[in-house]
């Protein structure tokens, strides 16, 4: 039995798993799936701060987050927000609620993206794109410091494709049957069936915002190594992008019958932050210069240490006149090379 939800209080403190939030006094009520999506979306908006550049997701869950951000802007609780929409539909919705918009050309690094997902596995890998916006979603969500995924508990699966629903692949219209057949054969062992997505009414092919088609792949069995599958799909000529979002989500918010659960992927978040720092700071820092100098000197010390036995052997043979003086001098100076290089690097390091 589902229960009523209290008002959620946001927190900036890092957490790994937040226990379900429950109302103690409210009588039990049954919440619809859309109400659960709205609860997850509102919880995600608590991560939004004034002055942020936000990626605005697409879909039945993300639309609630967009509406909430617009509401907070109108109330004056948020200001100086810039939104980067992931679809034409979201673009129109954001404008209607008063969110200023821009694009990745003007803002190549985003502070936060809030979006839904069609499937989430235990490692926070996602299937997205059943709404048809997977390419723009992946572009925007791959350029953010923090990616918050909002779902209801029906989207949790043991493995991607486990729901039996579609894993979309965006392809070019040219010879789409040829591409769809090759995708099927690629995952034949998983019982893959590929179907061109069409409009329900007239049966015409669904066309993405980028003018492409979508082939929906249905799997009867686990496809195995997700990274290998991702690479294989992207290497196929005619494929534009696929709907597997691997190691991209940093926070997962799940609304279920017992409340809201928040899970952070700490290690991945740190790596993404480091990656974003690299994008923002192309010039090497003083710390990186220092580290490189230390490594260079260490390499030269190791090289010198390795040459010590050779130097001893050359001197020993020369002392007993088992080498000619010419051979002795050549060997002696060759073994001194690491020492000379070490001195040079030491002077550079201390300069």
UniProtKB/TrEMBL annotation:
Its EC number is 5.3.1.6. CDD domains: RPI_A. InterPro entries: NagB/RpiA_transferase-like, Ribose-5P_isomerase, Ribose5P_isomerase_typA_subgr, Ribose5P_isomerase_type_A. GO terms for biological process: pentose-phosphate shunt, non-oxidative branch. GO terms for molecular function: ribose-5-phosphate isomerase activity. The chain crosses the membrane at residues 325-346. NCBIfam families: PRK00702.1 (NF001924), rpiA (TIGR00021). This is ribose-5-phosphate isomerase. It comes from Escallonia rubra.
């Amino acid at each position: 039995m589902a229960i009523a939800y209290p008002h959620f209080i946001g927190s900036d403190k890092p957490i790994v798993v937040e226990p379900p939030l429950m109302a103690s006094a409210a009588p039990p009520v049954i919440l619809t799936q859309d109400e659960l999506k709205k609860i997850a979306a509102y919880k995600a908006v608590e991560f939004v701060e004034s002055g942020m550049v936000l990626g605005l997701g697409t879909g039945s869950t993300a639309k609630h987050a967009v509406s909430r951000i617009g509401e907070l802007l109108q109330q004056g609780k948020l200001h100086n927000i810039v939104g980067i929409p992931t679809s034409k539909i979201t673009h129109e919705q954001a404008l209607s609620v008063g969110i200023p918009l821009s694009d990745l050309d003007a803002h190549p690094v985003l502070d936060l993206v809030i979006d839904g997902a069609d499937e989430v596995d235990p490692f926070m890998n996602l299937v997205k794109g059943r709404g048809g916006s997977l390419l723009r979603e992946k572009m925007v969500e791959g350029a953010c410091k923090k990616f918050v995924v909002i779902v209801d508990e029906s989207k949790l699966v043991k493995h991607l494709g486990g729901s039996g629903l579609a894993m979309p692949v965006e392809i070019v219209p040219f010879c789409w049957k040829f591409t769809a057949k090759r995708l099927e054969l690629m995952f034949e062992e998983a019982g893959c069936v590929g179907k061109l997505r069409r409009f329900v009414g007239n049966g015409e092919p669904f066309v993405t915002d980028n003018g492409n088609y979508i082939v929906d792949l249905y799997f009867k069995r686990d496809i195995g190594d997700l990274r290998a599958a991702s690479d294989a799909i992207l290497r196929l000529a005619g494929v534009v992008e696929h709907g597997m979002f691997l190691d991209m989500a940093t926070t997962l918010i799940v609304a279920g019958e017992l409340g809201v659960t928040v899970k952070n992927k700490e290690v991945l978040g740190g790596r993404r932050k480091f990656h974003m720092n690299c994008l923002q700071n192309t010039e090497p820092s003083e710390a990186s210069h220092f580290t490189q100098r230390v490594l260079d000197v260490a390499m030269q010390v190791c090289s010198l240490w390795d040459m010590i036995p050779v130097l001893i052997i050359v001197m020993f043979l020369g002392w007993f006149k088992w080498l000619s003086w010419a051979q002795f001098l050549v060997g002696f100076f060759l073994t001194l090379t690491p020492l000379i290089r070490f001195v040079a690097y030491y002077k550079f390091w201390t300069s």
